[in-house]
Design goal:
about 130 residues; mainly alpha; 2 strands; two-stranded antiparallel ribbon; globular
């Protein structure tokens, strides 16, 4: 059984603070914008499949757009994102969605995200931004 409620959180992302919100509208916005199934993509990123950073970017934008309808479109939004920044907020994205969608597999999803975050952190935490 699935229940929905509104969850909000403000995160620091790069040089800006972004308010994220997860509720039933988030599902509709995601599916209408990307012509993809929200819950299927969420299950894929939390499952044992390949890591798809674009899905995380879609979720991040959707949660930001749910909170603030004036957020720029997806392409412009992602144009201002360093990939290293997305890895830092993965736990926040998953926390909001998981808290919003209460399913029997929530612990499995959280465990997968923890493994992915640990892996990505080990690969990218030592990477410094090159000075130009």
């Amino acid at each position: 059984m699935m229940s929905m409620m509104t969850m909000t959180k403000t995160i620091k992302f790069g040089n800006r603070k972004i308010r994220l919100e997860s509720n039933a509208y988030s599902l509709i916005l995601y599916e209408n914008t990307f012509s993809r199934k929200f819950l299927k993509d969420y299950d894929n990123v939390c499952g044992e499949g390949e890591l798809d950073i674009v899905n995380y970017l879609r979720f991040l934008w959707t949660l930001a757009k749910t909170a603030d309808c004036d957020i720029e479109d997806f392409e412009e939004f992602t144009n201002n994102i360093m990939l290293g920044d997305i890895f830092k907020v993965l736990p926040d994205i998953v926390e909001l969605i998981t808290a919003n969608i209460r399913v029997n597999t929530a612990k499995k999803h959280q465990a997968r995200i923890t493994r992915v975050f640990t892996f990505l952190h080990s690969k990218f935490s030592h990477t410094q931004h090159a000075e130009v």
